[in-house]
Write a structure and sequence with these properties.
Length: 451
């Protein structure tokens, strides 16, 4: 039996949503416009889908963003991952942790159970990227607001799917905020504003780097056998970084941050990508089918060309920077969330502007949730999906250009419905092919059949 408190809350939610917003694709929704006439003292109740480190971090950021925020439900494929995250969060966020045993969901269908939970106001989506299109749509169809970590898609099929989800969110009064944190950091915004204001003239190109070392793998040889081997779905889910259908490869999963910054500066995505890549250090089967380095040229509509490099190889020199080149000078940005520094110079080396990243700055990971929660409480939900989807697919066409050895146009991605992942998410075996070989691999540009 539901409590009087739950009944009152559900009644409040229904009354706060216009009738026109309730019918979407045949489903009846009750979006949770959490606000009140008394100044927004209604608590925000979060559900977490995907209980890895980024998920726990996002919950911590949401709790830090504003008062009256609680975590009330969790979901993950693996019980041990959920249990570990629950232990860490109960210690880390204290009284804001309010997840009862019956609100801890495990298994392939766990995200559906969480999204249907009546106490959840908004869902934090930190599953592997290739699954976010599924969990986002499920949240929307259950009337939940969403924070979706970047990237939001890994191929043309999931790109179109999340854009449709954005339309549903707008029609139903639901908020979507994404994890492109550069766009909410004061110092980064200030640098991009200087570019947009013409400080370095018209943009003619850029150099962008997201080069680092090797990343984690999970499990021992005994664990891998227990998880079904390298073709096992559980192995792939636990080591999702290394499977293109789950991560989009590291150009999409990680380097999207700098790709998004370039799209932001240029005012939109590129028209084409051409480049190369490969795997030098990731030759064992445990590393799935992704590359460990990419070098991509992106062409933009104004004729500018952006040279992009990313790498994940142990023992190599790291570099995560963006240099924008204009007709009057350059802007160098060194991203570091909360302390991003930048400097603009003319071609003689004279400094035009600089920001040390420490004055009047903010914590962008927290700002994302501040913006989302404020929009929910104000009854004016933010829907930001187009930009992050465009940046996600920008990374994807770069990946596909390297995989295939061909030039891939942005319009090719718009026309395509290529899908990397399986249609159904189960624990059955999911064999994947070897790493793509340029000249043999093909990007599928044909649209989905209409019949």
């Amino acid at each position: 039996m539901q409590s009087e408190n739950q009944s009152t809350r559900r009644k409040f939610i229904k009354q706060s949503v216009p009738a026109s917003a309730l019918a979407v694709t045949g489903a009846t929704l009750f979006p949770k416009a959490v606000h009140s006439a008394s100044g927004g003292d209604e608590s925000i109740r979060i559900g977490l889908v995907g209980c890895g480190g980024r998920g726990s971090g996002a919950v911590t950021d949401a709790v830090a963003a504003t008062a009256n925020v609680k975590l009330v439900a969790m979901a993950d494929l693996a019980k041990d991952r959920l249990d570990q995250a629950a232990t860490n969060l109960e210690t880390g966020i204290g009284a804001a942790f309010d997840v009862r045993p019956d609100a801890r969901f495990v298994g392939p269908e766990s995200y559906k159970q969480l999204c249907a939970h009546p106490d959840v106001d908004y869902v934090i989506h930190t599953t592997p990227p290739g699954l976010r299109y599924l969990t986002l749509r499920e949240a929307l169809m259950n009337g939940k607001h969403s924070f979706v970590e970047k990237p939001v898609c890994v191929d043309p099929f999931t790109y179109h799917h999340v854009l449709e989800s954005g339309k549903i969110a707008k029609e139903t009064g639901l908020a979507i905020v994404s994890g492109t944190q550069y766009r909410r950091e004061n110092s980064y915004k200030a640098a991009i504003q200087q570019i947009h204001d013409g400080l370095i003239g018209e943009l003619t190109g850029a150099y962008q780097y997201y080069c680092g070392g090797a990343l984690w793998t999970r499990g021992t040889a005994a664990d891998w056998e227990r998880w079904g081997g390298f073709d096992g779905m559980e192995y792939q889910m636990r080591n999702w970084l290394y499977f293109a259908w789950l991560s989009g490869d590291h150009i999409t999963e990680q380097a999207i941050h700098n790709i998004d910054a370039v799209n932001w500066a240029f005012g939109g995505p590129p028209v084409a990508a051409y480049g190369s890549g490969g795997r030098i250090s990731r030759n064992d089967k445990q590393y799935g089918n992704i590359y460990d380095h990419f070098s991509i040229d992106y062409d933009y509509a104004n004729g500018a060309r952006v040279a992009f490099k990313c790498r994940q190889i142990a023992g190599t020199k790291g570099r995560v920077t963006n240099r924008f080149i204009g007709t009057k000078g350059t802007m160098d940005i060194r991203p570091s969330p909360g302390s991003t520094a930048s400097v603009a110079k003319d071609f003689s080396g004279k400094r035009l502007w600089n920001n040390n990243g420490r004055t009047k700055n903010n914590l962008p990971y927290v700002e994302e949730h501040k913006a989302l929660i404020a929009s929910i409480r104000a009854g004016d939900p933010i829907v930001e999906i187009q930009g992050v989807a465009d940046s996600s697919i920008t990374a994807t066409i770069g990946r596909e250009a390297a995989y295939s050895g061909q030039e891939i146009k942005f319009t090719d991605a718009l026309a395509s419905r290529m899908k990397l992942g399986p249609d159904d998410i189960t624990l059955a075996s999911n064999p994947v092919g070897p790493a793509p070989v340029p000249g043999q691999y093909q990007f599928i540009t044909e649209p989905e059949p209409t019949s």
